[in-house]
Amino acid sequence: MTATTHQSATSGFFDLHITGLGYLNRIREVKPKRGEAFWACDIAALNGPADDVGYTRFDCRISGRDAEVLVKRCRQAVYQGRKVLVGFKLGDLWTDTFVYSKGDKAGQTGISLKARLLFISWIKVNGEMVYQAPRREEQADGNDAHAGSAEHQAAPPETANGYAAAHSGGAAGSFDSPAMH
Description:
- This protein is an alpha+beta fold and 181 residues long.
- Helices cover 16% and strands 45% of the residues.
- β1 and β2 (13-30) form a beta hairpin.
């Protein structure tokens, strides 16, 4: 995972983005008592050395329009127990405390990492590449490869651990969110 800060000269705002790869879990529609319903998911992000991988769990509100379409498309695969690995970009990281209600930790305070899911650069289901976002240059050229129509795009061969493909702009598309620029 990498955290990057991007300053927009025109808006005077600093973005803090987290990019990485992780497994999708708990895809759901949230219907709050007040406000509009929204889609959410958990991402178990991979971190650490490739031979001793650790996971950091993010509870994400899906904010990117294309990301929402893509995550909804993955819902059935996740609930069938298939491994759905994604390259992602998160923004607006914050923490939330809660109290465990069940299990060994019942009554103890826990902390949840929350973020907005802004962008998905690629998706693999059980190791097979099923989606790859168009490169940023293609988007700027007016290529109409929209997430809603990019169901099964061709993908390059998978690298040994997937990390290089996820972080190489040429191999896995750009992590820059088209909605952010």
